[in-house]
């Protein structure tokens, strides 16, 4: 899976991608993440990427042109330069938007299955010129009912969640929490924990070795 992120703050992604499972997935080549900064392709000399909204109102709106130029480059160049011609690339474009459709595990699974490349367009300020959505045919997607300062954190969440669905990212297929028999109650050693004079035991059934009983218990916890 190739992720492409259009953002004016690529550094925000560094720490998360450079550790743990994301780092392993990148090192293995199961996923790739590339950044494209609208500021690098602005045509005005002050490298402005935003402007005041038509119709008035507070805040600034991200300009369409630099974003469209980057997007067109990604979809075009990537196709020609990098790819084994045998493998057809399938692009999906996502605009991070607090008012968009809700991101779910289902959405992550479908994205991983149906696409080779996902382009994230991260907005800051009050939003992105609506013509970006019109031209790119992007999905407008949100990660929940709260407002973030920008789309970067939401893009990171989606990259994490979609990567889990990519073959080879999780060492063991069974690690996919989404597919496990549902139980949020997990325990590890020690079997008995003492805290402030009280003892906390791991449920007997989990120590029994009886997998039929364990599965049954997990359905209800
Ligand atoms: Cl995708 N963007 C922003 N700015 N805020 C959000 C969001 C996205 N999803 C939830 N809140």
Describe this structure in words.
This protein has 221 residues and is of the alpha/beta class. The chain folds into two domains: 2-173, Alpha/beta knot; 181-219. The protein is built from seven helices and ten strands. The protein has helices at 14-17, 20-28, 64-81, 105-114, 131-136, 152-163, 211-219; strands at 2-6, 32-36, 50-51, 61-62, 91-102, 117-121, 127-128, 139-142, 192-195, 198-201. Strand 9 (192-195) and strand 10 form a beta hairpin. Helix 4 packs across helix 6. It is elongated, with a radius of gyration of 22 Å. The structure holds 6-chloroguanine. The site of 6-chloroguanine has 12 residues, from strand 5.
Give the beta-strand count.
10
Tally the structural domains.
2
Q: Which superfamily, in CATH terms, is the homologous superfamily of the largest domain?
A: SPOUT methyltransferase, trefoil knot domain
Global Rg: 22 Å
Mean model confidence by pLDDT = 93
Give the strand line-up of the largest sheet. Answer: 2-1-6-5-8
Number of helices: 7
Oligomer: single chain
Shape: elongated
Termini gap:
34 Å
How would you characterize the largest beta sheet? 5 strands, parallel
- Structural class label: alpha/beta
Query: What is the CATH third-level topology name of the largest domain?
Result: Alpha/beta knot
Order of helices and strands: EHHEEEHEHEEHEHEEH
CATH class of the largest domain: Alpha Beta
Associated small molecules: 6-chloroguanine
CATH architecture of the largest domain: 3-Layer(aba) Sandwich
Fraction of residues in H or I helices? 25-40%
Low-confidence stretches: none
Strand content: 15-25%
